[in-house]
Write a structure and sequence with these properties.
Order of helices and strands: EEHEEHEEEEEEEEHEEHEHEEHEE
Number of helices: 6
Pfam family, one: Fer2
CATH class of the largest domain: Alpha Beta
Number of strands: 19
Strand order of the largest sheet: 11-10-13-8-9-12
GO molecular function: 2 iron, 2 sulfur cluster binding; oxidoreductase activity
Organism: Neptunomonas phycophila
CATH topology of the largest domain: Rossmann fold
CATH superfamily of the largest domain: Nucleotide-binding domain of ferredoxin-NADP reductase (FNR) module
InterPro entries: 2Fe-2S_ferredoxin-like_sf, 2Fe-2S_ferredoxin-type, 2Fe2S_fd_BS, 4Fe4S_Fe-S-bd, BenC-like_FAD_NAD-bd, Beta-grasp_dom_sf, Cbr1-like_FAD-bd_dom, FAD-bd_FR_type
Protein name: Benzoate 1,2-dioxygenase electron transfer component BenC
Structural class: alpha/beta
Helix content: 10-25%
CATH architecture of the largest domain: 3-Layer(aba) Sandwich
Strand content: 25-35%
Length: 341
């Protein structure tokens, strides 16, 4: 059976290819007109070396140690010329996509709904021409109609659907916000470019702590959409912080996720000290029931001040999780996303 392979390039671009039975990733990529690095294609030179930490595959025994050592194999390194997938996989390619003639995919879609879900957030729902594959947590660049400007927004919907949604900060005077609130109509055409980003959900092999700030909830909604159809046993805990209580969005969806995913729990926190919300302060004030050790994967997404504060809290308290993945975003005149894995 064919498998979906996500090729994650060094510059954050992700391209999806289909790998047939007994076909190597290198051959499948070339069939899709993506020229991955290679020289010998026989497991001798090591030029096609990448990494795979997500998915099952077979490397056979035809390659030599100089191309891929036992230590590299143990660290998740692979040779794409020898790698034959046995499941869907994510393969990290240590080179920019432009060198492989594999730029971001150009997508077209139409506006379905624009909803003002809070004073500070807009929900955009669109319908793509065909299902869009992405890794839960990734983003796409959307061109602001009538301009050459783009804005980067994380998907909040389930991967692999043509029904896409985004949670967008409502910025006064913002180019995209102004268009969405004042001009957008159902059926309007949109141009998208992506998917992109190294902030995405890895295999859940240990407890997961998710920390969201404001519209930084969006990628976690996509992750939870993905997880609701997976068999997840490890605890997943989300702490969602906003400035004011009326900034809270997506609570109905979080309740549904809590019902469907037995190991998922969440809490909401409001920063305004005058709020009557049960929990006030910052997300770092309410981590008492979260696993915070080397057996935990932490995902963090929010505005720069919130992300910097959490990073400082972890540093000052010498908290070192098993892995730490974060994304911070800010309104700007151009697409701005900082994602660190």
């Amino acid at each position: 059976m064919p498998y979906n392979i996500a090729l994650n390039f060094e510059d954050g671009v992700t391209r999806f290819i289909t790998c047939n039975d007994d076909e190597t990733v290198l051959d499948a990529a070339y069939r899709a007109h993506i020229r991955l690095p290679m020289d010998c294609s026989d497991g001798v030179c090591g030029t096609c070396k990448g990494a795979c930490h997500q998915g099952k595959f077979d490397l056979g025994d035809e390659y030599i140690d100089d191309a891929l050592s036992d230590e590299e194999l143990e660290a998740g390194k692979v040779l794409t010329c020898q790698m034959v997938p046995a499941s869907d996989c994510v393969v990290e390619i240590p080179i920019a996509s432009s060198f492989c003639k594999a730029g971001p995919t150009e997508l077209t879609a139409v506006v379905d709904e624009v909803n003002l879900v809070s004073p500070t957030a807009i929900e955009l729902k669109i319908i793509a021409q065909s299902p869009v594959e992405f890794l839960a947590g990734q983003y796409v660049n959307i061109q602001v109609p009538g301009t050459q400007e783009t804005r980067a927004y994380s998907f909040s919907s389930q991967p692999g659907s043509d029904q896409l949604s985004f949670l967008i900060r409502n910025v006064s005077g913002g180019l995209m916000s102004t268009w969405l609130v004042g001009k957008a109509r159902t059926g309007d055409s949109l141009s998208l470019n992506g998917p992109m980003g190294s902030f995405y959900l890895r295999p859940v092999e240990r407890p997961v702590l998710m920390l969201a700030g404001g519209t930084g909830l969006a990628p976690f909604l996509a992750m939870l959409e993905y997880l609701k159809v997976q068999a997840v046993e490890h605890p997943i805990h989300l702490i969602y912080g906003v400035t004011n209580e009326d900034d809270l969005v997506g609570l109905a969806a979080l309740e549904v996720f809590a019902d469907i995913i037995p190991s998922f729990s969440y809490k909401t926190v409001v920063a305004n000290p005058e709020s009557q919300h049960p929990l006030t302060g910052y997300v770092t004030h309410h981590m008492e029931d979260a696993a915070l050790d080397q057996a935990t994967d932490v995902y963090l997404c929010g505005p720069p001040p919130m992300v910097d504060a959490v990073l400082g809290y972890f540093r000052d308290n010498t908290i070192k999780p098993h892995s730490f993945h974060y994304e911070k975003f800010a309104p700007s005149l151009v697409s701005t996303k900082e994602k660190v894995a």
